[in-house]
UniProtKB/TrEMBL annotation, chains A, B:
Superkingdom field: Bacteria
One of the Pfam families matching this protein, by short name: PurS
Free-text function comment from the UniProt entry: Part of the phosphoribosylformylglycinamidine synthase complex involved in the purines biosynthetic pathway. Catalyzes the ATP-dependent conversion of formylglycinamide ribonucleotide (FGAR) and glutamine to yield formylglycinamidine ribonucleotide (FGAM) and glutamate. The FGAM synthase complex is composed of three subunits. PurQ produces an ammonia molecule by converting glutamine to glutamate. PurL transfers the ammonia molecule to FGAR to form FGAM in an ATP-dependent manner.
Enzyme class: ligase
UniProt KW Iron keyword: no
Keyword Disulfide bond carried by entry: no
Name this polypeptide is given: Phosphoribosylformylglycinamidine synthase subunit PurS
Length: 101, 101
């Protein structure tokens, strides 16, 4: 079993009403020095790694899930990373198309 | 300016209907070997670091924001980490109470 994390964030150029609402709330609570807040989703997916299959293969499958189901590539960027698998290795692929500030 | 990330996830013992819905959708799409899916929120907060203030002080402030506004400590765990600040250092504090599986 390996736990793969998919972080999905709105693209920088996309308006983020949720993030703006949080930033407004922080200001009303007297928190200073917050320039911006962006809010996205985080998925932690536990996937089985069958005999003979590799963590990288399963990570690539999660990458496809992220691109097709978990994120809307038109308005969102996603980032796939493996929390340390059984062998303690971490892996990561980056689904941004280079527009991430 | 430093970008601090706050990841907020439902506590392991709490029912996660959103995660279950995603797991069901993956199964219907024919994706196999997904044991579980948990869905949470990810905040990316840009905070100014005034002259004489330290990144750690600002991170501690974001930690307080996380505990009071961004997460509901009764049903959620949170994790605060700094995306590499200007000096390339990363920091991290962990708002879990040790029950994270």
């Amino acid at each position: 079993m390996v736990r793969v994390v998919v972080d999905v964030m709105p693209k920088p150029e996309i308006l983020d009403p949720q993030g703006k609402a949080v930033a407004g709330a922080l200001a009303r609570l007297g928190v200073e020095g917050v320039a911006s807040v962006r809010q996205g989703k985080r998925f932690e997916i536990e996937v089985e790694v069958a005999e003979g299959a590799s963590v990288d293969e399963r990570t690539a499958e999660v990458e496809r899930m992220a691109a097709t189901l978990l994120a809307n590539p038109v308005i969102e960027d996603y980032r796939v990373s493996v929390l340390a698998d059984a062998a303690g290795r971490t892996h990561g692929t980056d689904g941004t198309d280079g527009t991430d500030a």
